[in-house]
Amino acid sequence: MSIVHILTQELRNSLSNRYLMAMVVILAALGLTLVAIGSNATGVVQVDRLTVQVTSLSSLSIFLVPLISLFISYDSVVGEKEHGRLILDLSYPVTRFEWIIGKFLGHWLAVICAIVIGYSVAIIPILVSSEFDPQSLYSFVRLIFSSIMLGGIFVAIGYWVSVSVKQRTSAAGIAIGLWLFSVMLFDLALLGLLVSETGKALTASQVNALLMMNPVDVFRLISLSSDQVNQFSAMQAIGEVNTLSFGLLALVMTAWLLIPLLISVFVFRRVEL
Question: 207 FRET partner, CA 20 to 30 A, in 85, 92, 141, 195?
Answer without folding.
Answer: 141
